[in-house]
């Protein structure tokens, strides 16, 4: 055998093969099965395990909120396509499903089963017209030695519905032991989920109504008559019943109290449940700080950032790349789909980078690089210079103020134009000052009356304004740049 291998490898291959030689063997060895080899009880786990429910809901609801956009590639540049037909389809995939529900079900299927399937219904031109999410536990893959995947079979109530490969988009997680199906996180969390459920059942049975374990026993050592026995029971229940916790004093013979309730050591299983909770959440990529009752605000913010960067965003990239590969070819070449980049940025580092770029880049370059804004006619110069598109008679009408002056005639000859600009500057200043007290507020101020170049300089100045005095200084400079 080694001689044969030596002879084979002695003829060094000069070019790549057009097809991987192992694919046929993989498809042939993976024989068709009517039932997919996935966890069939995952739906019950989702229903019965509160931490699995919490983890999956956090992921699917957060992921379904992120918009997906279509871009056209022009060399290294990505050109956004507004209201692309695929975006319209994803916003309303079929008459019964909304865009939020589409991604909620898709991401949820990946988390529960490791697989998610879209069925594409097309029109006469061949473009997708509807998208339907298929239940992964009903879908079986049909391997093929030539095409790798010949198609799919959807089984429901004993009916077998064949689906062509081009009609189905298969999203899947990586499975080290299967070439066609994905691995569910629940498979890895099976032990923790089962332990948590058994501990929950034990807790319910221990404190349930039908549990016949008394809190203690009152043992009357000496023989007493029936009358005294009934009197002792009556006095005990009257004085110490209904949840009262007092020291017992009874009349009668020798009375002994024996405690047989659960001690704090017996109840330490609650710590075990927390350990199971942490393990389940970690398997799904949910930082414990997002759900812990002891998490501080700082810990919660760090946990949220970790969740977005390390859990949610990679899942969105997986979906977007599959959509680009399977769906966008229906609409033409050189198209890609991407979800909005929701990863938090380091504000201080970003501001320092923008500040360092001020003397090196023009306004248009700053707009494109840091704000994803289109170029403007007045943006060929650096920040702080007068606009370059003024008529020749207005060039040079500036002062030595760091914020260039723009004559009133640039906006119009009437005083109402200047009044509108000053009013909007005052509104913007109040808006910026109020937002200092609300750092979670991210909505930008809507500019209407201000010229673009002045609005851009105010926006750039506010990036570095860290307190109220700095904000007021930005707007004072803007007002000084308006000359009568």
Can you describe what's shown?
By secondary structure, the chain is of the alpha+beta class. It has three domains: 17-208 and 273-344, no CATH class; 216-260; 347-483, no CATH class. It contains 16 helices and 13 strands. The strands form five sheets. Strands 2-1-11 form a three-stranded antiparallel sheet. A three-stranded antiparallel sheet has the order 4-3-8. A hairpin with a 2-residue loop joins strand 6 and strand 7. The chain is flat and about 105 Å long.
Topology:
Elements: H1 2-10, H2 23-29, H3 42-48, H4 50-64, E1 68-74, E2 77-80, H5 85-91, H6 99-113, E3 115-122, E4 128-134, E5 139-144, E6 148-156, E7 159-164, E8 168-172, H7 185-188, H8 190-207, E9 216-220, H9 226-240, E10 255-259, H10 269-283, H11 297-326, E11 335-339, H12 347-357, H13 363-370, E12 406-407, H14 415-436, H15 452-463, H16 468-480, E13 482-483
Parallel strand pairs: 12-13
Antiparallel strand pairs: 1-2, 1-11, 3-4, 3-8, 5-6, 6-7, 9-10
Helix pairs in contact: 3-4, 4-6, 8-10, 14-16, 15-16
Shape, principal axes of CA atoms = flat
- Report Rg: 35 Å
Taking pLDDT < 50 over at least 5 consecutive residues as the criterion, the unreliable ranges are: 386-413
- The strand line-up of the biggest sheet is 2-1-11
Helical content (DSSP H or I, runs of 4+) = 40-55%
- Biggest sheet, in brief? 3 strands, antiparallel
Mean pLDDT: 78
Count, helices: 16
Count of domain modules = 3
Which secondary-structure class do the elements indicate?
Answer: alpha+beta
Give the topology string: H per helix, E per strand.
HHHHEEHHEEEEEEHHEHEHHEHHEHHHE
**DSSP summary, beta strand count:** 13
Report the portion of residues in β strands. 5-15%
Distance between the termini: 94 Å
């Amino acid at each position: 055998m080694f001689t044969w291998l030596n002879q084979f490898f002695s003829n060094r291959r000069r070019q790549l093969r057009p097809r991987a030689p192992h694919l046929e063997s993989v498809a042939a060895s993976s024989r068709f099965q009517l039932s997919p080899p996935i966890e069939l009880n995952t739906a019950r786990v989702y229903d019965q395990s509160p931490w699995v429910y919490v983890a999956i809901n956090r992921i699917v609801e957060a992921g379904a909120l992120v918009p997906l956009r279509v871009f056209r590639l022009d060399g290294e540049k990505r050109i956004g396509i507004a209201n692309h037909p695929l975006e319209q389809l994803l916003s309303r995939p079929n008459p019964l499903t909304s865009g939020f529900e589409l991604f909620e079900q898709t991401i949820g299927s990946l988390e529960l089963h490791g697989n998610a399937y879209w069925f594409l219904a097309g029109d006469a031109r061949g473009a997708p017209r509807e998208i339907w999410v298929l239940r992964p536990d009903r879908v079986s893959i049909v391997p093929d030695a030539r095409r790798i995947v010949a198609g799919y079979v959807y089984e429901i109530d004993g009916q077998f519905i064949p689906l062509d490969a081009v009609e189905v988009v298969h999203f899947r997680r990586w499975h080290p032991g299967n070439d066609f199906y994905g691995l569910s996180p629940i498979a890895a969390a099976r032990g923790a989920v089962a332990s948590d459920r058994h501990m929950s059942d034990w807790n319910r049975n221990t404190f349930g109504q039908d549990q016949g374990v008394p809190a203690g026993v009152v043992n009357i050592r000496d023989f007493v008559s029936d009358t005294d026995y009934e009197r002792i029971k009556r006095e005990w229940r009257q004085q110490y019943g209904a949840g009262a916790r007092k020291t017992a004093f009874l009349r009668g013979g020798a009375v002994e109290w024996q405690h047989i309730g659960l001690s704090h050591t017996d109840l330490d299983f609650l710590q075990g449940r927390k350990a199971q909770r942490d393990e389940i959440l970690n398997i799904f990529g949910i930082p414990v700080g997002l759900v812990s009752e002891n998490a501080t605000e700082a810990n919660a913010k760090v946990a949220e950032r970790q969740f977005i960067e390390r859990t949610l965003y990679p899942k969105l990239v997986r979906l977007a790349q599959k959509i680009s590969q399977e769906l966008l070819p229906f609409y033409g070449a050189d198209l890609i789909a991407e979800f909005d980049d929701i990863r938090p940025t380091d504000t201080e580092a970003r501001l320092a980078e923008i500040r360092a770029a001020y003397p090196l880049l023009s306004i248009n370059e700053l707009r494109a690089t840091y704000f994803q804004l289109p170029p403007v006619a007045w943006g060929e110069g650096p920040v702080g210079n007068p606009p370059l598109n003024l008529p020749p008679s207005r060039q040079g009408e500036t002062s030595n103020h760091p914020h260039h002056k723009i004559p009133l005639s640039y906006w119009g000859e009437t005083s109402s134009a200047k009044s509108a600009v000053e009013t909007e500057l005052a509104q913007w200043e109040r808006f910026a000052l109020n937002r200092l007290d609300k750092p979670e507020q991210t909505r930008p101020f809507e500019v209407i009356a201000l010229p673009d170049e002045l609005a851009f300089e105010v926006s750039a100045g506010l990036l570095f304004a860290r307190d109220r005095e700095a904000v007021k200084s930005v707007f004072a400079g803007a007002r000084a740049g308006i000359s009568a």
